[in-house]
Amino acid sequence: MRSLTEALAAPLGDADATIQSMEDASPAKWHLAHTTWFFETFLLSEHVDGYEPFDPDWAFLFNSYYESHGERNARFNRGMISRPSLDEVLAYRAHVNAAMEPLLADDELAPLVVLGCAHEQQHQELLLTDIKHALFQNPLGPAMFDAARDPAAKRCEPEWLSYPGGIAKIGHQSDGFAYDCEGPSHRALLEPFAMRSTLVTNREWAEFVADGGYDDALLWLSDGWAWVQENDVQAPLYWRDGEQFTHAGWRARDPDAPVTHISYFEADAFATWAGRRLPTEFEWEAIARGQDCPECDAAFDSAAGNQLDAGRIGATPVMPRGGTELFGDCWQWTRSAYLPFPRFRPAEGAVGEYNGKFMSGQFVLKGASCATARGHSRASYRNFFYPHQRWQFTGLRLAKDI
Amino acid sequence: MRSLTEALAAPLGDADATIQSMEDASPAKWHLAHTTWFFETFLLSEHVDGYEPFDPDWAFLFNSYYESHGERNARFNRGMISRPSLDEVLAYRAHVNAAMEPLLADDELAPLVVLGCAHEQQHQELLLTDIKHALFQNPLGPAMFDAARDPAAKRCEPEWLSYPGGIAKIGHQSDGFAYDCEGPSHRALLEPFAMRSTLVTNREWAEFVADGGYDDALLWLSDGWAWVQENDVQAPLYWRDGEQFTHAGWRARDPDAPVTHISYFEADAFATWAGRRLPTEFEWEAIARGQDCPECDAAFDSAAGNQLDAGRIGATPVMPRGGTELFGDCWQWTRSAYLPFPRFRPAEGAVGEYNGKFMSGQFVLKGASCATARGHSRASYRNFFYPHQRWQFTGLRLAKDI
Amino acid sequence: MRSLTEALAAPLGDADATIQSMEDASPAKWHLAHTTWFFETFLLSEHVDGYEPFDPDWAFLFNSYYESHGERNARFNRGMISRPSLDEVLAYRAHVNAAMEPLLADDELAPLVVLGCAHEQQHQELLLTDIKHALFQNPLGPAMFDAARDPAAKRCEPEWLSYPGGIAKIGHQSDGFAYDCEGPSHRALLEPFAMRSTLVTNREWAEFVADGGYDDALLWLSDGWAWVQENDVQAPLYWRDGEQFTHAGWRARDPDAPVTHISYFEADAFATWAGRRLPTEFEWEAIARGQDCPECDAAFDSAAGNQLDAGRIGATPVMPRGGTELFGDCWQWTRSAYLPFPRFRPAEGAVGEYNGKFMSGQFVLKGASCATARGHSRASYRNFFYPHQRWQFTGLRLAKDI
Amino acid sequence: MRSLTEALAAPLGDADATIQSMEDASPAKWHLAHTTWFFETFLLSEHVDGYEPFDPDWAFLFNSYYESHGERNARFNRGMISRPSLDEVLAYRAHVNAAMEPLLADDELAPLVVLGCAHEQQHQELLLTDIKHALFQNPLGPAMFDAARDPAAKRCEPEWLSYPGGIAKIGHQSDGFAYDCEGPSHRALLEPFAMRSTLVTNREWAEFVADGGYDDALLWLSDGWAWVQENDVQAPLYWRDGEQFTHAGWRARDPDAPVTHISYFEADAFATWAGRRLPTEFEWEAIARGQDCPECDAAFDSAAGNQLDAGRIGATPVMPRGGTELFGDCWQWTRSAYLPFPRFRPAEGAVGEYNGKFMSGQFVLKGASCATARGHSRASYRNFFYPHQRWQFTGLRLAKDI
């Protein structure tokens, strides 16, 4: 699993892996090291007698936001860490991987190992979205992957998937891994509604733009309108004329592909313009639980798989083969704020800082994107971002009351 | 009803009524004029043939955030409007009041008139909180009201009010006035919980401070901790040693009075420290619907009533006589984000900009404060502010799962 | 002399006198009080046994930048001081004036009294420029003075005043009052040059604008171009179409009047565009010492005089009657940085903070404006502002090498 | 000469050469490419028929501030250019060097070639100061050079070098290369003064710190005090306890070495504290013209020379062997603003943007630092920086009136 991270970083040079384009993003090298630090700190240092850290100073460098684990390197300073080099960080990974071997058989530690792997999978996605944003800053528009295979998205006819209302079972319900914020499983009361079977496409978004969507204050949330004005927003992030910036550089935009890289503000304005609304996270999950999670849409499985799908990441995202596009194209904004489920308790200890502390000001996104690791998709997954953020593969799906 | 606004502004000079201390607050003169502009714009100009605006330029000056009604005077510029003077604005009020007389009997217009009055009541509260913040900037700490009567708060023993869970009816359910966001009335599913009968007091808050509450990152939401650090927050707004700034200037703090002027971040951190949590808006409303709304706690009824209670406003807030302190002491933060109820639709026309557009990033507060107009309190009322804001009379009430 | 200050403030209401439009400017009330504080602090408190301050708290409020005299009220907070009211401040002035009476005959104190008066004269000018900026923020464009008399400026033919070069005597050379920075008198070596007899007019400036002066980066200093871009500057401050904002509100612009309210950046760019340059302060002073200081141009002499000239202030500035427009129209940017003269020593004691501490980053302006008190003009006077500032009556005069 | 640039960059990895720590600084890779772009743009493209740019897109990337040469890559974005890689930039250098060969014999182009070399020498110094600042951000404090040889500075007794006053000849006076702003040569009138023979040392600065120099507002220029407060300045840049950050990492501070990395504000405050003042640029030059320029102090001569002196750069700067420390230790702040000399005219064409446009808000520094290329030192050289900047090797020398 961890080797995928190296595979994703393989096309990057030392400089590519070092730069940081904004506070929200981190350097690729940092992702490589921070995920390793997680294993070293929470597993090796605590459970292996006499384990010596690879380099004691690195704990400071590669901690992220665990306030209980000492002063952190100020977040925006991550892009200043030219040393250790990419090669040294890769050696760090090899060292920790080797040291972890004996622990993988320890059943007691299994939950922590699984958490470390899930954590790494999250950072695999962030590595991809962060480096995309960094390369985008370069006027030369450099490509990270080839885009040899770039199948056009199939045009699907949207349908309305109806739900009769009633009490739905929400939240993580199996024995598999899930983050603390996905539970406890609980009941939610839903009114009758319908959700569209397909995501909103670039073609539909272009109509919104052409209709003056970005110029009509009445379509926007108040904070959204302020954001549009202040940043002179006129299109999704990464749009330029008929093109879109991708991991394979600037490419022609596929009108039938789902729109991506939009903020919550944009998603909400679009829904208002379309006379619809965004679904709640509960509505989305209720629909998703009645559907099969389409495995074929998962983006990455292994390093091999990644080599195979590099073109896909490089290209504009393509429509999945059939299905309802729930997973594997883009994260879908819901109108639900990221808040605790009833009876939620943060996990004990340092890892308890993981999710609960972010429960203000953010919105839940459901599904999974083309950059999400395959095993990391499930109906109960709650991704969350601030309403102005859009450097992730974020899109939307419409809903309506019935 | 409107005469209360003038009564509240009576202790203010022209200069007092002109200054603006921050973007969130508005000058008293602006509140006086803006509420009048509402009647002139939505009633007189649209429903009285040949009505001439008092001054056509004032529409621009005193519009607030209605994007559909033309360019507004940039919000932070409100404090630059030394002219018209306070006297001229009072003349404007008299003029519009007189012109409104014939319309008060028109049943068709009644909903708009009622909305205009509710709007004015909101601004009465804002006038009080905004001028308090403005006077607080003055190192001389000037008083606006006398504080002759200042009864100490009674010390009440807190109890836990239990709720068995189940489906509760939430939202506005009577024929009386309510804002669009209070409806539609709908069902909500609640798990068993208990809510404390009393508000958190200054005494309890002082314990939190003494215990290092403001220095322990682990108690705080991530955004809250950043806010504490950036603003060097060490106590509620308006605290200074054993004193508290009030409308009657700096006064000794009553330990048994409810703590006020805290942010959501602080409320949440306190609850975490206390091993409890904040209630949801649905839990709060469910409890409140089982209680009588204690009329005796309402702050203002008439200009006369205001004269009477000026001391109360000037003083530190006092405990209500018995009851559960639901209304009339302070707004109580809930852990619910301010979002639309199921099947919510904004009102048609310009007044539809009233509430729906603020549905991102804010939290719901329930109850009513000592500065809330008496007729403006009801169980379905949804006040909302950003989690860092605390210049309103904001406090908290603890809840727990059972 | 001090009664002129009251006369200038006479058209202002309490609110007008309280507001502050930017950090560079101060409220009129503050000017009234601060100049009084100067007399109270440096004369009454130090030289009158048993003198009781009018109000001890006001020392904090009305100190300006004398670091040695205790913590100051943060500069941008001055606009929050709604109390004391304008009337109370006027009472403060009367109180201090009365207390000063006996000291006026004391020869030993005469230098400090003269400094206090010069200080007050500076603030008279600032009071006028600051309130103009504040009223300008008001979309209603209110007038402070009538503009009954508004004689059109006479069109003068510009001539070149030549100077042969050589050693000039620079700096304050008489027994009259001067600030410390005007001395010591010293020799300066000048190359041959010529300076224009007239100021640059609105007409000439309009040609610069029409020729794309604000759009051609090559005309500008690097910092100037950044300032133009960041603030989207397209014209002098207070220009709007063919109008100009004045103390008498919006008025038609007189093309033959000197251009005013320009920054150093603009003055320098204009000179470059015109193929000329700005004079140095030494060149300007050398020319001025060969000219009579035209008394008729001085703006104010007494309260009566002010009443008389209120229209002049209200109007666009008018050309002086003959002469070389050195004094009484506008301050003229020189290309000299504000730095100490050879052998300069700041005055001893607190008043020594007066000038020397501002000697970095600012440019010298010579002459006097239409808002400068009559007795406050002299050839050695060194006014100074940052190169981006332009809310004073600032203009320019061209020079060239010969 | 250009090979020294490569030699200086030799210890840097691709990531080291890419990062940018602040807007004032540029990545090493950018320095390498920008100096090359200068030769390509002003020599090859204009004077070689059929010359094809190495890569047409790079002109945009590696232009700096020549407004006449097209839109530039926003300055703070330079740190985002991970591609081209360091190797590719070195190939660019080789390509342009080869293409330049035939032009070196062309007498007509000699002035531009010399300018290009001088420009490169400036960037050699900036490369060293910028990478030092970037590595300083890294909590690991990485070293770029070894510090094998680190001779302690010799303790010199300071003497006062007197100057009798009179007319001095100032500005560039030989046939050698000089920037346009160093001329025209002209006369300046000086009063009698004395200048210290030695630079202020770390030992003296430590006394200033110990005496509360950073806490006494009265010692500081007004802007300087604001800068101290806002940035919480307590010592020169790169000081930490008894250590100093150098190109060889954190090293013990030599008390007898000249203090470096101080702002003009600090230099001025120190001089005030010491009861002295800073010299003017004219005083400094007049003294320097009476001294031999000590060749032995020049830091770099060739790549070989650089290898030799790497330890010197890495170490704390050392006292020169005898002499008056005019050149080769640190740039010395003067109290002269950076302004045009009499009859100054910017050079024609694009290279005319080189110096004149920076003539506002900056101060002149004289001498040369340990990072200045040997051939780049001369008495007429005018370096200039804003008064708050201190990432260069900046120090001071005291003067006094006599």
UniProtKB/TrEMBL annotation, chains A, B, C, D:
Show where the DinB-like domain sits: 2-109
Pathway it works in: Amino-acid biosynthesis; ergothioneine biosynthesis
PANTHER family per UniProt: HERCYNINE OXYGENASE, SULFATASE MODIFYING FACTOR 1, 2
For this UniProt record, the keywords arranged alphabetically read as follows: Iron, Oxidoreductase
* Annotated source species: Blastomonas marina
User: Which Pfam families is this protein grouped with?
Assistant: DinB_2, FGE-sulfatase
What is the name of this protein?
Ergothioneine biosynthesis protein EgtB
Q: Does the keyword Oxidoreductase apply?
A: yes
Sulfatase-modifying factor enzyme-like domain residues are: 158-400
